[in-house]
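Quick one:
INPUT:
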């Protein structure tokens, strides 16, 4: 019995520590969104979390360490999101539906985690986060190119790359407008963003999406 209790105590301490870290990261996300990363302070984060600065320093040595931990967790979740959003597309799926589903997943992530945009596009983000974001951006472009290559099998690699960059650039420009509004106006900007992407891709993709398929036809493959 005594041995069992000794093993349980470290687990409880670890669980309490994880809850405290989650509390501090949530507070940091709120502060970064409100003031930006540069103007944020550990004192403000501790105050938002309802703890003393000394408690914060038990887990994080400075503001940069908090931002890096928060950024790492968000980017891990973002990778899962684009894995779902850029999954292979059934050729019978209309272009409007395929674009709409992908945009909805990305927008939902950014609306649920507005600090992601605040951190990744701020002027003074920590170097580690900038490097991780660059890697995420490159991977995302590769996934978009892979998806496009299945829809445009005869397109030269340079054209696929250019189209992928345009799609991502259009999305990022639209995302800033979406996040800058709320309620019905936000929904309207989401619709506009989808329309822009659809109108851009429609002449390129043609009738490759949405056309009836033979029963033996397989889904498009993404690299």
């Amino acid at each position: 019995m005594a041995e069992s209790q000794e093993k349980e105590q470290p687990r409880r301490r670890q669980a309490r520590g994880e809850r405290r870290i989650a509390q501090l990261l949530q507070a940091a996300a709120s502060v970064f969104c409100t003031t930006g990363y540069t103007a944020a302070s550990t004192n403000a984060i501790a105050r938002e979390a309802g703890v003393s600065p000394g408690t914060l320093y038990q887990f994080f040595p400075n503001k940069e360490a908090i931002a890096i931990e928060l950024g790492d967790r968000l980017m891990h979740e973002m990778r899962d999101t684009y894995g779902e959003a850029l999954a292979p597309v059934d050729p019978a799926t209309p272009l409007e539906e395929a674009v709409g589903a992908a945009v909805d997943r990305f927008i939902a992530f950014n609306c649920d985690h507005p600090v992601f945009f605040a951190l990744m596009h701020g002027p003074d983000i920590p170097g580690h986060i900038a490097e991780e974001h660059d890697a995420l951006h490159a991977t995302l472009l590769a996934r978009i190119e892979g998806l496009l290559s299945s829809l445009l099998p005869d397109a030269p690699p340079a054209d696929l790359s250019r189209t992928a960059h345009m799609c991502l650039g259009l999305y990022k420009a639209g995302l800033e407008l979406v996040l800058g509004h709320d309620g019905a106006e936000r929904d309207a900007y989401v619709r506009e963003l989808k329309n822009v992407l659809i109108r851009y891709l429609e002449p390129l993709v043609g009738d490759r999406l949405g056309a009836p398929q033979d029963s033996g036809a397989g889904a498009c493959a993404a690299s």
